[in-house]
Q: What sequence folds into this?
């Protein structure tokens, strides 16, 4: 949580699912929501990281966290993970569909079908499955907030050469979020999508560079630094502040919004 934001308890009695909670943006959002009173279900592929976070949060507030080892692109495991969350905490109020990978980066003709399908399946199908299995439980509550992590790539920035699978999924998430916002408005379920620029996380570990990528790069020179406001990448906690705002009733009239959080990075590209 940003030190300059007063401690609030906006999520007392609420339950949140956070995908990709083991690292980076998801981890920061889980910590912030738990500090503000939420029960948090920590969904991630890498169970060691979420187990450690589970222990840390349960020390902060007894039984507020539950780590679930799940691949968001696996329909059977996702359905089970959402069911376990609701059984454990007794309901669902907030969904942060955030898990994602950079995936294969390279010239289109050099990418294999499985490269393409892997990125689509984690970033786009994973988002679909997260919403699909959560929505019935939010409807049961008669209210809810969903936040999806997209990116400036594929939306306002197209100069990341070789990142066509990633950028395509990030554009798809924005369309999906807006469709969902309209479909779910009458159920008082809000859906918003955030588009971060560079944030210091472990995301680079999920990048698979094709050696031919250099052949398609058009050199671009940034005037001074790529993120003018921060003079460098943002922090996961900066994004967590935005996620918590969108998850809370402070944003009660905001749905279908696409919010850029990039320290002006995309204004340069
Ligand atoms: P990160 O790698 O630090 O965290 C992502 C987490 O998602 C990891 O713990 C990983 O294990 C998990 N994950 C990956 N695939 C999964 C799957 N199939 N099922 C369950 N969990 C899975 O990266 P991050 O930067 O925190 O990424 C979070 C989101 O932010 C991603 O959707 C990413 O595309 C987006 N994003 C990141 C940046 C950035 O610069 N870091 C910029 C724009 C958008």
A:
């Amino acid at each position: 949580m940003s030190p300059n934001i007063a401690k609030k308890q906006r999520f007392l009695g609420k339950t949140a699912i956070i995908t990709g909670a083991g690292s980076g943006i998801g981890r920061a959002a889980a910590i912030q929501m738990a500090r503000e009173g939420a029960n948090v279900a920590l969904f991630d592929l890498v169970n060691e990281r979420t187990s450690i976070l589970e222990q840390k949060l349960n020390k902060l507030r007894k039984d507020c966290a539950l780590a679930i080892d799940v691949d968001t692109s696996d329909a059977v495991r996702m359905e089970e993970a959402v069911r376990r969350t609701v059984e454990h905490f007794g309901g669902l109020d907030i969904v942060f569909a955030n898990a994602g990978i950079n995936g294969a980066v390279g010239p289109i003709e050099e990418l294999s079908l499985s490269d393409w399908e892997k990125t689509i399946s984690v970033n786009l199908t994973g988002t679909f499955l997260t919403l699909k299995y959560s929505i019935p439980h939010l409807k049961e509550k008669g209210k809810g907030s969903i936040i999806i992590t997209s990116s400036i790539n594929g939306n306002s920035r197209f100069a990341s050469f070789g990142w066509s699978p990633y950028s395509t999924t990030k554009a798809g998430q924005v369309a999906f979020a807006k469709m969902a916002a309209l479909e779910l408005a009458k159920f008082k379920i809000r859906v918003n999508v955030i588009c971060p620029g560079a944030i210091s996380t472990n995301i680079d570990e999920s990048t698979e560079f094709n050696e031919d990528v250099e052949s398609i790069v058009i050199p671009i020179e940034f005037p001074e630094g790529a993120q003018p406001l921060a003079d460098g990448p943002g922090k996961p906690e900066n994004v967590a502040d935005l996620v918590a705002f969108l998850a809370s009733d402070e944003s009660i009239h905001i749905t279908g919004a696409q919010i850029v959080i990039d320290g002006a990075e995309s204004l340069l590209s």
